[in-house]
Target: HECT domain-containing protein
Amino acid sequence: MICWGESTLKELGLNSSHHDVALRPTQNQETPGSLENAKIATVSVGKGVVAVVRENGTGAFCLRDEMGDKKNKRKPRHLALWKHKIDTLSCGAFHIVMVSETGNVFQLNCEEKPNIPRPLNAIDRQVIQVACGDHHTIALSKDGQLFTWGSNSNGQLGLGNDAPSTKTPQLLYTLSGIPLVMVTAGRDHSFTLSISGTVFGWGKNNAGQLGLGDKTDRYDPIPVKSLHLKRTVSISCGDEHTASLTKGGLVFTFGSGKYGQLGHNSNRDELQPRLVAELWGSRVTQIACGRHHSLAYVSSLKTIYAFGCGEQGQLGSEQASNQNVPLPVQLSSAFDSDHGIGTIFAGGNQSFYTPIQGSEGSPETRPCPDKMISTLDDKLINKWMSDTKPWKKIKREIINIFSSDSSLNGSFLHQSDDKHYQTTLKNSGLDLSLARQAFEKLAKSERVLTEIVSAVQNKLIPSLYPAPAGVEGLRVYLILPELLRVLPVTAQRVFCMLFAHAILKLQPDCLKILEGLWSSLPEDLFQSLVNSFQSVSSWFICQRCLVETERRVVPIRNTLEVLQKLFVVNFKRNRKIHKRKFYITQIKQFFLSDRRINPGFEIVVRDLSLYPGIFDKETKYLIFGIKWFTPLEEAYCHYGHNDLFVNRKTILADTIKQLQGCYRNYSCPLKVTFAREDGVDEGGVSQEFFTILVRQFCCLDPSMIEMDETTKLSWFCQQEDSEYSKFVYLGIVCGMALFNDRVANFCFPLALFKKLLGFEPTLEDLKELSPVVAGNVEQVLYMDEDVLEALYLDFTVDGHDLVPNGEDILVTNFNRKQYVEAYVEFVFNKSVTRQFDSFLRGFTIGCPKRQWNIFLPEELMALLQGNVDYDWDELKKNTKYEAYKPTDENIQNFWTVFSELSEEQKKNFMFFMTGTERLLVSKTQMTIVNSNKSNPDDYSPQSSTCFCKLYLPNYSSIQILRDKFVHAISFCEEFGLE
Model:
């Protein structure tokens, strides 16, 4: 061990000099008079104690107030663990925490007598790393769990603001699941580092030593965002400063700069990580922080750089002075060309390094393998699959890894080009193809797979914390589906239900992150995930519908809810899988058959309607047709009325007046009567009511609805002085139409139905509503940067801010995407918030049947506004006949005449049959009835719009049929027959 700095430390054999300060690195004195002649492996310096561990597992310590005291000839105190060798240790102010070679933790309080290490049995796991602050300690276990104990005066335990100081190690749940590789502690602050370079800090922050941009203490671990994606591989803490090292060899420092320990050529504190520019160009491989100084080692140059406080010689510059920039340590008297530098250490006012043979090279910046958490790799899998290894040891390894989410989260990383260091909300950092290959290989051994499933189901899943810290803690939720794929069918069902329950336990913000990761999965992996939950849900539903009728569906609710979330995520994916992959088609079969046999089936279907993604379109229409009323609600439907009496010419004013008037029960069927007409409303009259109402509304009230000249689509007006009550009535009208299975085509774009169902409109929706406006906005995304800047475009539209203070923000190359998103948000949300909210309130009043939310936006749009995808051949194929045969001459003539009609005339025919030219999605079948007139040539065809029946006289010739039929469909405005 080579050392320099405060005190000779000769009692520990760390210096042959008799001076109180060593200004240059000095070889330690290996004499039997100090310690046994063995190499020193680890040294740690606390405020009041210094301790070492030698490679033979022995150790020693001295209290600082006894060092260098010529009057005090006391020998160093021996450190030993009963029946154990010391593997590593760390010193606090007056305590030492040791880890044995078996991973047991012991603590020695130097101020207590006798100095006997006591075991910390509260940690029931194998510990691989410890780090001590002045009065607190952090320990990392082999399975990735973090424990803290000691003082919590400034939040240095990370247990929360209300957590007291404690002598008993406490599990730090907020970092549960994060695959950690390093822990370190300053005087009153703490840091840990994840395998993919995420840095978490907590504790005292009076000088900015947490790197968070402020000086506020943190009582819970928080990621240092400024170091995100920097590929951090090492972190070290001083008293009130911190240094981090990237894989590329860059050093960032932050916190107190009072002594120049940040290396920025100043004594200023830094509240955020700042690159040490003076080390630029030299790939640093190790860093270490003392109390007020820092070390950086460049292995390619075999040079240690030091900066900060040097008053005790800790900088090794032959001068007892401070340095604000990194300067080389003078190694000339101690450095041998045959030896190299192994590991550097710094603590208190001392600096150290271990010499190694020159050919050995410097150790990696990461901890050695036995100081890393357990992870699964191909080498370990091959060992498990080998029959030559003891099964008990293999079983123990399987349990250790598959009962730890941290271990799994640290496995299967995307190593090529360091992609796992680029972990974001859309990139998990995983190479899931490795996970798939691994589980396929493990599945070849039944006993290995059985042990894995047991560990996952009995230990891992129950222990998953509902709020893992970020993406790295959520990786396990992407890995386990690959295990699910290789399980036998029966095991899949149990596993899937337990896994679904764990997913749904996640806190909302974590679940949102997971959904984002799902949306970025490759198509085959996402398809596999969907298949797993779909197949298990399908099996359980079939069992449920066949044998049970009670109201609740608890056993399958979790898998269905996850499947529904995947269904929603699918709409956000760039490459969507077909929605039929989510359908459970057996439900429709039970709906059409067992519904008559099983009186409780409708109750089961009602519960299942909470998960609309599992239904195909036809099943949704069947479900929506059910009267979802309890007996009490059913009785309520018989009270009150929902009748309207209107004049065709004043239909809009009449409707609003009556909706404003007396109480009406919207659960009752709508009955419409036109003034001076004797039509009885069995559906056809009310359908024409909506058709005429839509025409007048769009023409007579432009203050509410504006229509795009190009697309003829309608959207809410943006005037701030709008009468919002009118939007309520508009919503009621649309809701009544939907509830009563009528078409009300107000020509709204798909965006309205997205908003009704909770989907966010996009730029594509703006293109549908107004392609001219959307085209202008979209150009902002693709125009040259210099052209964009020349436009002086700001974040406003028509005098309205798109974002706060939008008029002061110019659109640039860096925020152009934000501008387009803000523009779309303004058009569809911000500018019409009160209008839409009023419409939605009215819509839910007019349609008391809440099951409309089972539809997709395009399905709900077709249900309310009708369908224009005419298939005339399908209409002919599905037509039924009364008192006619398809082969009758009059029927043949009818279809001949029908085929001669123009597209516009065929639409007139649909209006003649249904009261609207748009097809009702639930009514696509008509019936042709022989009217049995004695003189058929004297009569025109008539229709029953309520039942979609055509009363067709049996004409004597095709020409008479043609004349009568064309005249009938051309003049069919008023009711008299109904």
DSSP finds 29 helices and 38 strands in the chain. The first strand starts at residue 2 and ends at 6. Residues 130 and 139 are 4 Å apart (CA to CA).
